Amino acid sequence: MPPVPARPSPYPSMPAFPPPTSHRASSSRVSAWLCGWLFGFLFSLLGLAGAAQAAPLPLSKQGIAHLGSGGQLFFAGDEAAPADAAALPAWLARQRPAGQVDLFGGAYWLHAQVRNDSNVAAWVIDPNDTLIDLVDLYVYGPGPDAAPQTLLTGYQRPHEYLLHYGKDVQLAPGATYDILIRFSSPYYARAPMFGVKTQHDYRKLVGKENFLMVASIGALLALGLFNFFIFSITLEKASAYYALYVLTYGLAWAMTFHVFADLFDWHLLQLHYVPFFLLPVFSTLFYTHFLRLRDYSPLLYRISKVNLVLPLLLLPSCFFALSYAHTLATIAISIWMLLALICGIVVWRRGYQPARFFVLAFVALMLPGFLILPANLGLMPAMVANAQLVTLLGGTLDGLLLAFALADQIRLLRNNLEQRVQERTLALTLSNDALLTAKEHAEVVSRHRIDFLSSCPMPSSRVPMMIWLVRTSSAHRMRRRRAWRAWRWGRRASACTTASRS
Prior knowledge:
Elements: H1 22-52, E1 57-59, E2 72-75, H2 88-93, E3 106-116, E4 122-128, E5 134-140, E6 149-153, E7 167-170, E8 176-185, E9 193-198, H3 199-234, H4 237-256, H5 259-264, H6 274-290, H7 293-296, H8 298-303, H9 306-314, H10 317-320, H11 322-349, H12 355-376, H13 387-454, H14 459-472, H15 474-501
Helix pairs in contact: 3-4, 3-13, 4-6, 4-13, 6-9, 6-11, 9-11, 11-12, 12-13
């Protein structure tokens, strides 16, 4: 069969298969982008679901240092915690993830799954490493329908353990639990830690840390009172400023460790950083007097006035911008410590020996600071556990070394005083020797005069010479003066008597 010829197109100018236009090409790119975004969104949801169902943290007898290392952090609003474990996955899917805790305050949820692989049932959940205003703990499990164990702690609430936030919880061996924590605070000194320890280990930890806290604060209090006593006797300003410094340091850390909150039920967060702002002021007054900075380095003396002005200008932030008070206090304290150390080194190099204990004291204070202050500013994670206690111990050592510096200054002053007394005694001895020599010389001269007069051959010549010697002698002059005064007083008395009779 011969081939059928193709039917001519009624539109000869348009080809049978026209090429795609630019509009169709852009539409295909948009469709591809939408498909990619949709697949990415689905994969992200699957990733979140997988994260929500991540493997639980194993709980051994050593405990867990921080639940956040295997948990999820979310921003917290006004929503309540779910009523049971069955509602927890859907509740978590609605939360907004958070990358890290903002040190300027806020509210957060922390979720973690824990599997108790030990044979211990008595545990403690311990929020630590910073002040936290309110902490709500919810422990779901082991069944999906069981009501959660609800535990409340924080700065504003009563504590089961003195000066600590820990709360007892029961976790059955071999069971898996969901731990949901809501915490909020106007500020955070550093990112909070949520550990899990056995009750036995936690009691030992609390006893050890409380002993160190009370001993350190008590040592600072004793040093302050003792130096006030020294000031009452010597009236030395350096002792008074040192006493104010160590007492303020002890008060600041007593408030940080909730001594007043636990012992006296006194909760006033706005006053917590007032002593920390006053520390640079009292310390600067102390070291400018102690180091004699005006004499040894007038330039550093003028620069040190920054430590007197800046903290007082920033102090109102405790009442009007509490979220920023911690950061501002950290900046002021960093400037103070660095400037004080420079002043101590300069004065020591210029020959003032008591400055060596001052330099050692601030090195002891700054070593914990180098590990802690960058974490306070959010520049790096915390490098030590319970950084606040480490800082308190460093400050106590600083106070003790400054007491040694004051004692060394007193020793130096005593040695200088003894040296001055010896020099004065030597001067008096030399003066007495000179007087004795002059007396002996005068006696020899007088004896020679008498011998000379007695050896004169003519008696008539001796009388005028004797009269002249008597008249020129000091005793004769003194007797004449006394006689003249007596005669004048006698004339005045007789004149007054005559006037009274008339």
